[in-house]
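Weekly modeling sync, notes
Attendees: AB, CL, MP (scribe)

Item 1: holo prediction request
CL wants a bound-state model with adenosine-5'-triphosphate before deciding which constructs to order. AB pointed out that an apo prediction alone won't tell us much about the pocket. Agreed to run with the ligand included and paste results into these notes for async review.

Input as submitted:
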Amino acid sequence: MSIEVRHLSKHFGAFQALDNISLGFPSGELVALLGPSGCGKTTLLRIIAGLEYADSGQVLFHGEDSTGKHVRDRNVGFVFQHYALFRHMTVFDNVAFGLSVRPRSLRPSKADIARRVHELLELVQLDWLADRYPDQLSGGQRQRIALARALAVEPRVLLLDEPFGALDAKVRKDLRQWLRRLHDELHITSIFVTHDQEEAMEVADRIVVIHQGRIEQIGTPDEIQQQSASPFVCEFIGQTNRFEGNIKDGWADFGDFRLETPPRLQESAKLAGYVRPHEITLHNQASDNSIPVTVASLKRLGPIIRLGLVSTSGQDIHVELASQQLPKDTEVGARLFATPIQAQLFAV
Ligand SMILES: Nc1ncnc2c1ncn2[C@@H]1O[C@H](COP(=O)(O)OP(=O)(O)OP(=O)(O)O)[C@@H](O)[C@H]1O
C-alpha cells in the first residue's frame, strides 16, 4: 500500500505546523520522519492516520483520496509512545482486542482469533507472556506487545510515533534492530517518527528530514549523510565541523586549507564547509592544506580514537580516527596538523 500526501498545510491558531508538504511513501518501505522537537512530524503522522485533519491538501492511500476518511476506515495500525496497553486486560486480550470488537458479521471465530493472537505473539517472540498483565512486563516487552496489537487487524499501513522513546538506550537499540527485521519479514508500508538521527539511520529505508513544518530533504540514510541538502541537515545528522570560507582563484578557500569547488558555487560570496570527524587526517608535519591544532582531549573507544582539537584561531575541531592512524606519541597538549579530506559545501 503506497501513501502519498499532496500540499498538506496545517495551522494551530496563528502557528503553521505544516507548510505545503508533498511526498510519497512507496509500498513496503520503512520511512522515518526525522526532525527536531516541534518541527511537525507527529502532526504529519496524525494527519496520515486520520487522527487530525489538514487545513488543505490531500492524503492518498494506494492512489485513492482518503483525506476525509475516518481513522477507523483507513486500516492503519498505530504504535504510539504514550498509547498504553489496556492495564486490566491480559497480553492475550490486548492483542485480541481489535479483532474481538469487530461487528459480529466481520468478527473471526474465537478459535481463529486465538490462532491469530498466538501467531502474532510468536512473531514478536513473546508467546510465553500471553497470560500476564501489562504491569508485569518490561518497557521493551510492552512495546512489542503494542506492535503485535497493532498488527492484529492486518493493517495496510503501520504508523509508529517515537515507539521506543521512553526506553533506555540498550533496549532501544535492540528493539530498533528487531523492528527492522520484523519489517523485512512483513513488508507493511511503515512510517515512524523519531528525533533521533541514529535511530533513523539504522532502521529506515528512506528518511524525510523535516524542519519548521517543511521538508528539508528526502533520501536514503547514505544520501542524507553524504549529500545533505542544506546546512541544517548537515548539522542535524550527527557530529560535524563547520568552517567558513570563500571562493579564491576557483577554490573553496578556508584560510589554512582549500578544497575543490563545484561549478554551482563558483559565484558564491561566502561558503560553509562541513567536515565530519572521520573526514580529517592528522599529521606531525605541516602541509599546504593543513590546520595547525593543539590536542585538547583524547578518548579511546576500543579501536576508535576521538580527539578534541583547538586551532590557532580558537576553533574547536572534532576528529575520529582508527587508532593506528593516530600520529605516534600523541597526547593531550600535542601540536599537530589536521587535514580535511572532503567537505560538503554550501553558499551561505
Ligand atoms: N493541538 C495543538 N494545538 C496547538 N499547537 C499544537 C497542537 N499540536 C501540535 N501543536 C504545535 O505544532 C508544532 C508541531 O507539533 P508536532 O507534535 O507535530 O511536533 P513534533 O515534530 O512531533 O515534535 P516532538 O518531537 O516534540 O513530538 C509544535 O510547535 C506544537 O506545539
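Recorded for review: The chain has eight helices and 20 strands.
Action items: CL to compare against the apo run; MP to circulate these notes.
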